[in-house]
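Notes, Module 5: Reading structure tokens.

Key idea: the token line is not a picture. It is a compressed description, and you learn to read it the same way you learned to read a sequence, by spotting repeated patterns. We will look at two proteins. The first is printed below with its tokens.
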Amino acid sequence: MQLFLIRHCQSTNNEVLDQKQSPDELIGGDWIDKMVPDPPLTQKGETQGKLLAQFLHEHKNPNIVKDYLPDHQNVSGFNISHLYCSLMQRSIITAQYISHAIKIPQIVWKDIHECGGLFTQDPKSEKRIGIPGPNHEHFASQYPKLIIPETIDPKGWWNKPIETQKDISNRANKVKTELIKRHGQTNDKVILVTHVGFYHHLLSSILNIPISNKRNMWLHLNNAAISHLTFNKTGIRVNYLNRLDFLPRDLIT
């Protein structure tokens, strides 16, 4: 299996955090009020999505060149066979661009959502509170080509409290196990359009890296960036992480 972990394109929450972290911004402010539980893409994020999809399309079909085999840098093409996204709209929309460009179905994998799930913050207690999220009817009407093989609670796909760190680690291990079960002993080339926090936990699980609550070690992935791993009989090969050579400098976020 060839695994491609792609972070969704820039969301409005990403943009707010980038501005908050700017050295020109005064300490404090109402930036946190601009955060939303399930943010859409920004205009910059939409552009990133188009360029990401164009890049995968231009390198869609394998060119059999002996000098490039085995092709760890995808010089001879990606030839993607499976495309998964979470139920968060920034992942859905990013994967939508890819699906349209390379003409393969866009399949939901509910468990590859961002850490914590869907939640809001109580303005008084500052406690994070889980919220229901959209249901199957919403996704069917908004994204009619989205394939949802999993059951969704009619009250909403999340509809439970915010995840704990243990919950996140268990989910990452579950996804790793299921990923290997579905595709591990195949020649499939699989994209997961996921989120930076879950990417960190999933990659840590795959590579058997201990997770620290202090976050003194972090596996980062920029918006729209690609990481590529190979699973074979001898083990796992990390071919590249956080690839962004298809974006101009002003679109790297």
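Here is the second protein, with the sequence above and the tokens below, as before.
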Amino acid sequence: MHCTNCGHQSQNGASFCGQCGNDFNSLAIPRPITDSEGSTGPRLVPWRGGQVALGIITVVCVFLLLLAVIVPAVGIDNLAAVTFLTSLVLGLVILSAVALIGLLPYRVWLSSLGIAPLGVPSVKVALMTVGVLVLSLGSTALYSALVRLSGFEILEPPEIPQGIVLPGAGAVFTFIALVLWTPFTEEVFFRGFVLAGLLSRLGGVGAMIVSALIFSAFHIAPGVLIPIFITGLLLAWLYRRTGSLWPSICAHAGQNGIALAVTILEL
């Protein structure tokens, strides 16, 4: 039996956790972490690095398997359909892995993933969210400019192809997939599951760095590894400062939405 507060393994049938004193007779919601300034951060979760690694391996393997089916079935030339379907499938794989590896085995609530009310005043959260979005966009623009000046074309962020958007009214589905669905599922996984699972072992800064590295590695293309890493750090900081995933989801959605709008409008 694992404690839902601290992850400590106790004997089956025990009434209380021997490490933190959690009452096993009530379905406890993992408690939030409060720093020295009184800000509420991510909740302590029962899963650890082993479960995080298993989740990452599961998501990668299952997604690659499904991708091997989707691409031949739809056709690699139909980029918009492939993009929409892969976004949908990857999100479902992510949520399934998080539920099966993190939530269900320990009988914890969605609040342990950060699907919870804000831990700081809403005006402050709004300012932090906008600030993170601006910093993320600004750092990406600065990185692109520096790479162009250096002449290392392989490190330049690739342009989003026009064919990524479904034609006509189908653009709405592309918007839902890339601006709403993808930010939600990725934040649940990289911040709510990965970052939170690494906190107890690596501490705040270490967990932020490692989770941002993993987030960056998932995007594969050399030209986005550094910008995505910076964005991952900013989103991790926002999650830790607010104790809720919603601000990170909003900032992530804002960045995706701006990128998609630029592509559609050919700016």
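Summary for the second protein:
- Helices lie at 49-74, 79-103, 122-150, 171-217, 225-242, 246-265.
- Strands lie at 32-34, 40-43.
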